[in-house]
């Protein structure tokens, strides 16, 4: 368990103090894949560096497995950092070392014998699909391959926590998906806790189970990914979920309006609104829709315009909500 309690971080600059983080509190369960998302300047990278105390918080505590990291000596903290490793956007590989020697590096620092370190490193390169690149240098690899080597190196010391700081931001979409699938596979096989720092909704949707949204150094919303993204409450969450703009004004809609929330509904071959029209004879107009599939589940929000008829509204709500993972309610005073 990672318990971040009332954490704040202030940087002193020539132009005055800058509050990068303000009273951040999060609890991250063992084995979770936890996303921390926000726009540029939200404080994401500062927060991830505070988790392993590469940045010392100005206030607050970071407690890992019941131990306050801020109370440790530098020697003790170095030991704990072997259990909390990081991968970065820029890979941070040692260019003068082969892939094998890059993965061996943290094991050498830990005092492992060379033969044992090489054996472990080869196992990890096989795990990330690059055993055949053991003697290649980083400059000879693609960006995705370099990130795979970085992941192997991060796993060398059998960490309990993997911190991913914008780890896929420099990669193309196909390579990003491959790296995210690899991280997810490693999480499932080893039970390692993964914390994903990103500004990309697609990354969180792909692999995270829980998410916290940072805005101006403050956590403005947190919870299960499906819940936060299907019914965003904060302005920052709405900007991320609806980047094309806020929801439409409802005053101009004639008749009645339903809010339909897809919160993990099974995707069907026939669109739900089409089925309702065929089976119930209810002609609904789609005023707004922002839905997406995560795996085989549907998430998001839809606004439906209906005739001004109580019976039709009741029938539509009953029909829609009989499908598990769908919430429907009439909108009476705004979306």
Secondary-structure blueprint:
Blueprint: E1 2-13, E2 16-28, E3 33-37, H1 44-51, E4 59-64, E5 67-68, H2 74-81, E6 84-88, H3 99-109, H4 114-127, H5 143-155, E7 161-165, H6 173-190, E8 193-198, H7 201-207, E9 210-215, E10 218-224, H8 225-230, H9 235-241, E11 256-266, H10 272-280, E12 285-294, E13 297-306, H11 310-321, E14 326-330
Parallel strand pairs: 3-8, 3-9, 6-7, 7-8
Antiparallel strand pairs: 1-2, 1-4, 4-5, 9-10, 11-13, 11-14, 12-13
Helix pairs in contact: 3-4, 3-5, 4-5, 5-6
CA radius of gyration is 24 Å
The main sheet orders its strands as 6-7-8-3-9-10
Helix content: 25-40%
How would you sum up the global shape?
A: globular
Strand content: 25-35%
Average pLDDT over all residues: 88
**Spans where pLDDT lies below 50 across 5 or more residues:** none
How many H/I helices? 11
Order of helix and strand elements from N to C terminus: EEEHEEHEHHHEHEHEEHHEHEEHE
Number of extended strands: 14
Q: Alpha-carbon distance between the termini? A: 37 Å
Kindly name the structural category. alpha/beta
Largest sheet: 6 strands, mixed
Tell me what you see in this structure.
- The longest helix is centred in the middle third of the chain and has 18 residues, at 173-190.
- Helices cover 34% and strands 31% of the residues.
- Strand 12 (285-294) and strand 13 form a beta hairpin.
- It is α/β, with parallel strands linked by helices and 335 residues long.
- Helix 4 (114-127) crosses helix 5 (143-155) and helix 5 runs parallel beside helix 6 (173-190).
- The model has no long low-confidence stretch (mean pLDDT 88).
- The two termini are 37 Å apart.
- It contains eleven helices and 14 strands.
- Strands 6-7-8-3-9-10 form a six-stranded mixed β-sheet, sandwiched between helices. It has a four-stranded antiparallel β-sheet with strand order 2-1-4-5, covered by helices on one side.
């Amino acid at each position: 368990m990672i318990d971040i309690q009332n954490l704040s971080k202030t940087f002193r600059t020539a132009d005055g103090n800058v509050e990068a983080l303000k009273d951040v509190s999060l609890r991250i369960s063992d084995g979770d894949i936890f996303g921390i998302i926000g726009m540029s300047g939200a404080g994401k990278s500062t927060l991830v560096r505070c988790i392993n105390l590469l940045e010392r918080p100005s206030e607050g505590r970071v407690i890992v497995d019941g131990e306050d990291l801020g109370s440790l000596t530098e020697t003790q903290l170095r030991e704990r950092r072997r259990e909390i490793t990081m991968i970065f956007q820029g890979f941070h590989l040692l260019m003068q070392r082969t892939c094998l020697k890059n993965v061996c590096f943290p094991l050498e620092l830990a005092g492992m014998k060379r033969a044992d370190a090489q054996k472990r490193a080869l196992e990890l390169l096989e795990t990330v699909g690059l055993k055949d690149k053991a003697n290649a240098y980083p400059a000879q690899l693609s960006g995705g391959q370099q990130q795979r080597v970085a992941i192997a190196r991060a796993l060398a010391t059998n960490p309990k926590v993997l911190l991913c700081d914008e780890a896929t931001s420099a990669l193309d979409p196909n390579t990003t998906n491959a790296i995210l699938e690899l991280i997810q596979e490693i999480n499932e096989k080893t039970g390692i806790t993964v914390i994903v720092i990103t500004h990309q909704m697609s990354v969180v949707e792909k692999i995270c189970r829980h998410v916290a949204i940072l805005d101006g150094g403050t956590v403005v919303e947190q919870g299960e990914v499906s819940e936060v993204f299907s019914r965003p409450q904060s302005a920052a969450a709405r900007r991320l979920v609806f980047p094309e703009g806020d929801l439409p004004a409802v005053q101009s809609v004639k008749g009645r309006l339903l809010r339909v929330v897809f919160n993990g509904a099974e995707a069907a071959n026939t669109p739900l609104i089409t089925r309702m029209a065929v089976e119930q004879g209810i002609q609904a107009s789609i005023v707004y829709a922002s839905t997406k599939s995560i795996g085989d589940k549907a998430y998001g929000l839809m606004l439906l315009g209906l005739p001004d008829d109580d019976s039709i509204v009741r029938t539509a709500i009953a029909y829609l909500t009989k499908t598990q993972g769908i919430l429907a309610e009439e909108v009476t005073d705004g979306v």
